[in-house]
Amino acid sequence: MHANATALIEMDWDAFDPARIKAVRHQLADHPLLQPDQLVALGKRFQGTSHLFTFNNNAGADANFDDVARLYPNRRSVTDTLQGINEAKAWMLLRHVQADATYQKLIDLALDPIKPRIEKHDPGMYYRAGWIFVASPHTVTPFHIDRNHGILLQIHGTKKVYVWDAEDAEVCSELARDCFHSRHELDEVKWREEFRERAHVFEVGPGQGVYMPITSPHMVETGDDPSITISLTYSTNATRRNAMEHVLHDLLRRKGIKPPTVGKHPLLDRLSYASASAMIAMHGVGSRPPACPSLARRTAYAVAD
């Protein structure tokens, strides 16, 4: 572990609020494991597994993120895509890179030193993961939400990152969050062009990044050069409670009961959390586990699903 090492990720920790979007800086842009040659090697190791997805860049902000791999496939090999990323008109996702022992050490190197600072405000960090995105110029990562807190770190090239407040129900409804946490469905997370006016916009280059709380809607556009980005994600006690409450609310909706907004009634939220915890411990959601595996597996590192 690297708890006493120099922090490679910097932000205003005195003003850190786990529920608020924030700009960050970092010192990972020159790390050897995040350079193209090592990413080619990692891509080859991940070839044929659920850790690797490649897409063409025809998807826009309004594409359904769940369907991108099926609707916008990239037919080129890992090597051809990465080595020719400038002209490939594609983007590649290396997901759950912590499954590789070498990259798990990189995740630890980045997160261990800042864990005490995060846990001062947001205790119980677990389910850590790394996601590496390599993209051609002028590529869009469609509008979507994630089920963990995330720290996006730009390594090469530039990106324009649009992020919306997690509680902005105009951009992403409570129904959408319920469905996402319970069934990992993004059908209710729908892009509208007028959302741009409500976004926090960050133009990030190497050494810059953005902290995004759980289910903060976001969409990303790359600039004129190829882009490499790593996103570090993790769960906490609070994200676990939030997700469980949404899981129970989804179940209530399917029984014809309209639940209140998560976070508006603390006592009811605590009861929801207790009920959802018991339900998931016994038999998942209905006859299956919840879509968010971190609810059933409180492990140090995320497990690919």
UniProtKB/TrEMBL annotation:
<dbReference type="InterPro" id="IPR003347">
    <property type="entry name" value="JmjC_dom"/>
</dbReference>
<feature type="domain" description="JmjC">
    <location>
        <begin position="101"/>
        <end position="251"/>
    </location>
</feature>
<protein>
    <recommendedName>
        <fullName>JmjC domain-containing protein</fullName>
    </recommendedName>
</protein>
<dbReference type="InterPro" id="IPR041667">
    <property type="entry name" value="Cupin_8"/>
</dbReference>
<dbReference type="Pfam" id="PF13621">
    <property type="entry name" value="Cupin_8"/>
</dbReference>
